[in-house]
Design brief:
The complex is a heterotrimer of chains A (246), B (469) and C (372). Chain A has 246 residues and is α/β, with parallel strands linked by helices. Chain A has helices spanning 42-50, 74-79, 97-109, 115-128, 146-160, 176-191, 230-238, 241-244, and strands spanning 4-13, 16-26, 31-35, 55-64, 67-68, 82-85, 164-168, 196-201, 214-219, 222-227. The radius of gyration of chain A is 18 Å and the shape is globular. Chain B has 469 residues and is α/β, with parallel strands linked by helices. In chain B, the strands form three sheets. In chain B, strands 5, 6, 8, 9, 11, 12, 14, 15, 17, 18, 20, 22 and 24 form a 13-stranded mixed beta sheet that branches. Chain B has helices spanning 34-43, 48-63, 100-108, 111-118, 137-141, 149-154, 158-164, 175-183, 416-424, 429-445, 450-465, and strands at 26-27, 85-86, 121-126, 129-135, 145-148, 188-192, 202-207, 214-215, 218-223, 228-236, 244-246, 249-254, 259-267, 272-275, 277-282, 287-294, 299-302, 305-308, 314-323, 328-337, 343-352, 357-366, 373-383, 389-398, 403-413. Chain C has one domain. In chain C, strands 3-6-8-10-12-14-16-18-20 form a nine-stranded mixed beta sheet, covered by helices on one side. Chain C has a nine-stranded mixed beta sheet with strand order 4-5-7-9-11-13-15-17-19, covered by helices on one side. Chain C has a two-stranded antiparallel ribbon with strand order 1-2. In chain C, helix 5 (332-351) packs antiparallel against helix 6. The radius of gyration of chain C is 20 Å and the shape is globular. The mean pLDDT of chain C is 93. The chains are: A alpha/beta (246), B alpha/beta (469), C alpha/beta (372). At the A-C interface, helix 2, strand 6 and helix 3 of A face helix 4 and helix 5 of C. Strand 25 of chain B pairs antiparallel with strand 20 (307-315) of chain C.
Chain lengths: 246, 469, 372
């Protein structure tokens, strides 16, 4: 049985139908890429999977680990092992990056973690992400640059160790070096046993050094093609034009 | 081109300051007594309930205190005010029938021209009574009623008037509301039937000519379900050395899914005490939009309020206040959220100059029932010199957690950088400053009908330049 | 021991507005029996600080003119509350930093109360020229305790001095609490005020800052947490007299259950205060249906070459923020607690004294612990 099973999913936002009959199946440890032009509904899928109340599921089902999670609140989904890296991460004033992540781990596991172990993990992951250590004591995302916010999201991914993570345009607005670093972090996550990914992107740079199992093309709210990793290269060369009129 | 004077002087008010004689006018004696109120009622042929209402209001007036907050009004003595002045003419629907001097007054103010060009109907009040009232035929045919209050009160709409008159602003509201209840005269009655959308505005113009007089017009507007109206109000008076008083009352009933836009350009002379009360109530899905420009008067107390009673109702207030020499203008807005999913938006600009005092005062109240209320307040004040004053007094009272309230206020002067930037493009300093002030006022002027926006910009330009014409 | 009927107008606005708002002042009408109980402790007195108590004449160590200045000062609680302090207590704690002494170690004064204690105290703080002084006061009682605690603190920051005044309210939930603060800030001097308003049942804090000197400065930060039936009534008045004087005031906190909070904040840019700048920001998180929040931020401006600004954000946790927190596994309740703590941390982290931070931590863990 797949880890995530999306069946006939239709999603509406502000009265507009955005996603039309999406079917997708992601197995444990698999990395899927969701590509498509701007406005195709890529982020809508990520938000609907994670349970954003703004996104209204009009029909269809989402199974995670065999359970229908469509009605679950986002925190229940997170506790079940889902994660989403936000396109625009929110600023959390008054709570440091370090204390936020520690609180989140405690919430999800239900037990306090050893501070020394935690500090070590956090330190090594920050190093991997080339993330200035001083940021751990700064309020989460407050005054962070775009790149730093994205690094902070990937840092949470590595610290929370979800079973399945949605990366929503994690590469958007980043310079070449930052994309490389973030990509490094994602590769680290892929090393986790069973760590599955849905990478939402409209560029291909971030995928260059990553192993990709499957690629899906989303145009106007529908998945118009699915293939293996080589589809990424094809898109890289020819863009989405041939799908636009489908 | 005539060189504009550089010293700052009082605004050229020659277009407003002409006075006419009151020969042949009926003028009640000064002061406020039971006898005077009874006499007004008799002169106006009130129905009995209205006569009782006036006397009851007078009792309330005598019990209430003047406000202990706000600008000083000790220069106003009701014993010196003539509460009723009737011009020696009947109301007419043709300008030709209006006596020449009065007609000329309105000609100089541009009212007949505006009527021809861009209005669906016009009412013109001179002192205490309307002298002209006319509605375009195509508007009358839609069932829209636009008439003077007296005709409404003594005619077929009496019951409608009785059901609404001072129900929204009761005489107990404050001392000057009670005064209004006792001596009101003139004003307009508007009824827009369900579903009727007027795409050109109606306008009432209030002119107070008599020295030492008060004007107490009552405006009652009922916009029925799904209807749409834009109403414009203009006011002016020549300057006298004695105090004049304006204590009007505006009551606006906005029905389900109806929309009302109420625009005012107030340019009373600088001997006027302007103690005006304006209030709107919105039913479900209704919206009220206030556009308010306060330029004239010696003292103003003016805070149009919006009661968002129905779910999903919406209020917007956009205002500008320009206080110059000898002026103390206390203006703002009140918003009361009662229904669910209601929203309100206040955006005001104040300018102080030549020793003028402007105060922005507001309140936003969100009741426990007003789930998902949204309110936003933004007020900016500009100080044009260091002898003027500008205060900001905005209150918020929030009684539910299911609300999102934002507020921002700023006070400062014209930035030297901005002036320098414009000057570096070859614009002289005065023009640069005038441009910046116009830009500051722009959010309000762009909401006004074109001819009013032009008038407002002229007023600002004149104020800025102190031109002699 | 004497019962007295307290009938006071407290926390008055410098200019009045509509009476229906009930913000022009607050009214106190109740019987208070002052019993002088409660314990105050000063752990140690840092070098360069002089502390004495009793009436002024006994001490004689100070410059008399400074004392006269300080006696004239009005707190933000208003004249009636100031007169009450004058009347009920002669006891005065004098705190003074010597000229040119830069004292980094704080002077910590702890007031501890048991149930039923009722006391009023006063302090005068003088930072002499070019000195730096930190005074931390915390007020503690058992969580469920009731009583009365009035405190009046007057500060004179002489030329180029820096005074950091830190007040931590951890009183019991049934305490009536007055905290009156006044400060006179001379040329080049700075007063920094940090307030943690966490405990107490009905709290009235009134702060009056006189930025008298050229380039004088005030930086105020207050954090509050009102749960259950707690009530907090705040009044700040910041008068800018000095040219290029500078003020910032940040107030952040959360209301839950049936809590009530009133905030009045006035920036008064007086005539002649050329180049002055004043800014206040308020952020209130509303966490339950039954809360009531009133906010009245005033800017009075009698000068053109000045900048005054105010911003307020009042409301629940935004939907986007809630969703973000939930995707990290926090329930709505946990997200609210975390955000409320965040509001407090913002001031707590400025205190810079481990013991005080520990006390605050202990208190907040206590109140939020009850939720689980």
């Amino acid at each position: 049985m797949a880890l995530l099973e999306i069946k006939n999913l239709c999603v509406r936002v502000d009265g507009n139908d955005i996603l039309d009959n999406i079917n997708l199946s992601i197995g444990r440890g698999e990395t899927h890429v969701l590509m498509g032009p701007n406005g195709a509904g890529k982020s809508t899928l990520g938000n609907a999977l994670m349970g954003n109340p703004v996104y209204d599921i009009t029909s269809g089902n989402i199974f995670f680990n065999g359970l229908d999670i469509k009605e679950e609140s986002p925190d229940k989904r997170a506790k079940a092992g889902m994660f989403m890296s936000f396109q625009n991460p929110l600023e959390v004033p008054g709570i440091s990056l370090s204390s936020f992540i520690r609180n989140a781990i405690t919430q999800q596991t239900g037990e306090k973690i050893k501070f020394s172990q935690y500090r070590q993990d956090l330190g090594s992951n920050m190093e991997l992400l080339n993330f200035d250590r001083s940021y751990k004591d700064r309020d989460l995302n407050v005054g962070f640059s775009g790149g730093e916010k994205k690094k902070a999201e990937i840092l949470q991914l590595l610290m929370l160790k979800p079973k399945f993570a949605i990366l929503d345009e994690t590469d958007s607005g980043l310079d070449v070096d930052a994309v490389r670093t973030v990509s490094e972090g994602i590769r680290e996550y892929q090393k986790f046993e069973d760590g599955a990914l849905l990478i939402i992107t409209h560029a291909t740079k971030i995928l260059e050094s990553l192993h990709v199992d499957k690629t899906h093309i989303l145009v106007k709210g529908r998945i118009v093609e699915s293939g293996d990793g080589t589809l990424v290269e094809e898109i890289n060369k020819n863009g989405f034009e041939k799908y636009q009129d489908m | 081109m005539e060189k504009e004077r550089t010293e700052v002087d009082d605004i050229d008010r020659s277009i407003y300051d002409f006075k006419d004689s009151e020969e042949g006018f009926y003028r009640i004696k000064e002061g406020l007594t039971k006898e005077i109120v009874e006499k007004i009622s008799e002169e106006k042929h009130d129905p009995e309930w209205m006569r009782d209402f006036r006397l009851k209001s007078l009792e309330i007036y005598e019990k209430l205190e003047v406000p202990d907050w706000g600008p000083d009004i000790s220069g106003l003595n009701i014993d010196d005010i003539v509460t009723y002045v009737r011009p020696n003419t009947k109301m007419s629907a043709k300008w030709e029938e209006v006596p020449d001097d009065i007609k000329n007054t309105f000609e100089r103010l541009g009212i007949p021209q505006a009527e021809r060009e861009s209005l669906a109907g016009v009412g013109a009040q001179y002192d205490s009574e309307l002298v002209y009232h006319n509605v375009k035929d195509e508007v009358s045919k839609t069932g829209v009623i636009y008439t003077d209050m007296e005709s409404a009160l003594t005619g077929e709409y009496e019951q409608m008037v009785k059901d609404h008159f001072m129900k929204l602003v009761p005489p107990t509201d404050h001392k000057f509301a009670a005064l209004h209840g006792a001596v009101w005269s003139g004003g307009s009655f508007v009824y827009v039937p369900p579903g009727v959308k007027l795409d050109i505005p109606l306008q009432s113009y209030f002119r107070l000519n008599a020295a030492g007089a008060g004007q107490f017009e009552h405006t009652l507007i009922i916009v029925s379900e799904g209807a749409d109206l834009h109403f414009i109000e203009g006011c002016s008076a020549p300057k006298y050395n004695v105090a004049n008083l304006h204590a009007g009352c505006v009551e606006l009933y906005v029905g389900k899914n109806a929309r009302l836009r109420y625009s005012t350009i107030e340019n009373w002379s600088k001997n006027m005490y302007n103690l005006n009360t304006k209030r709107a109530i919105c039913e479900e899905g209704a919206s009220i939009e206030w556009i308010s420009g306060s330029f004239g008067s010696h003292v103003s107390y003016l805070y149009p309020s919006s009661i968002l009673k129905g779910n999903d109702s919406h209020a917007e207030f956009t205002g500008i206040t320009f206080a110059g020499r000898g002026q103390n203008l206390d203006t703002g807005a009140k918003m009361v959220h009662i229904g669910r999913d209601t929203s309100s938006f206040i955006n005001t600009k104040s300018i102080s100059k030549d020793g003028g005092i402007s105060t922005y005062r507001s309140s936003v109240t969100v009741m426990p029932t007003a789930e998902n209320a949204k309110a936003s307040v933004s007020c900016a004040s500009l100080m044009l010199d260091d002898i003027s004053r500008s205060d900001t007094v905005p209150a918020m009272d929030i009684r539910t957690d299911k609300a999102d309230i934002g507020h921002e206020a700023k006070i400062g002067r014209i930035s030297d950088d901005a002036v320098f930037y414009l000057m570096s493009r070859g614009i002289d300093e005065e023009d640069a400053k005038a441009m910046i002030v116009s830009g500051f006022a722009d959010p309000v002027s762009k909401e006004l009908p074109l001819e009013y926006a032009v008038e407002m910009n002229n007023l600002i330009r004149l104020e800025m330049k102190g031109a002699i014409g | 021991m004497e019962s007295r009927q307290l009938q006071l107008k407290i926390n008055p606005l410098p200019t009045l507005t509509w009476n229906f708002l009930k913000l022009n002042s607050a009214v106190i009408d109740e019987t208070v029996t002052l019993n002088g109980r409660g314990k105050s402790t000063i752990q140690n007195i840092p070098r360069g600080v002089i502390v004495s108590s009793g009436s002024c004449e006994e001490c004689g160590g100070c410059d008399i003119s400074a004392i006269q200045d300080i006696r004239q000062m009005k707190t933000g609680l208003g004249a009636e509350a100031d007169a009450f302090f004058e009347e009920v207590t002669d006891d005065m704690l004098h705190i003074r930093s010597k000229k040119n002494m830069q004292i980094s170690e704080p002077l910590c004064i702890s007031y501890e109360f048991a149930d039923g204690d009722a006391n009023a105290v006063r302090q005068e703080i003088i930072a002499e020229e070019d000195s730096r002084l930190t005074v931390i006061m915390d007020y503690t009682a058992g969580r469920k305790n009731g009583g009365f605690f009035g405190v009046q603190t007057r500060v004179k920051a002489c030329r180029n001095s820096v005074v950091r005044l830190i007040k931590i309210n951890l009183l019991g939930d049934s305490f009536l609490h007055f905290d009156g603060i006044a400060a006179l800030v001379e040329e080049g001097a700075k007063v920094e005020l940090l307030q943690m308003e966490l405990g107490g049942g009905r709290n009235y804090t009134g702060t009056d800052i006189d930025l008298a000197g050229y380039k004088s400065e005030f930086a105020g930060n207050a954090a509050f947490l009102c749960l259950g039936d707690q009530m907090l009534d705040m009044n700040y008045y910041i008068g800018h007299r000095g040219k290029k004087s500078l003020s910032t005031l940040g107030v952040k906190g959360a209301l839950r259950d049936r809590a009530v909070k009133n905030f009045r904040g006035t920036i008064d840019l007086k005539h002649g205060a050329k180049g002055a700048k004043g800014n206040e920001q308020e952020e209130t998180l509303l966490l339950s249906d039954g809360v009531q929040n009133k906010t009245l931020p005033l800017i009075l401006c009698d000068e053109d070459d000045v900048e005054g600004s105010h911003g307020a954000t009042i409301g629940r946790l935004s939907q986007e923020m809630l969703f973000y927190m939930q995707t990290r596994g926090f329930t709505e309740h946990e997200a609210q607690v975390l955000m409320a703590k965040g509001q407090l941390n913002f001031v707590r982290d400025l205190i810079g004294d481990e013991k005080s931070v520990g006390r605050i931590q202990h208190y907040t863990e206590g109140v939020f612990g009850d939720d689980r």
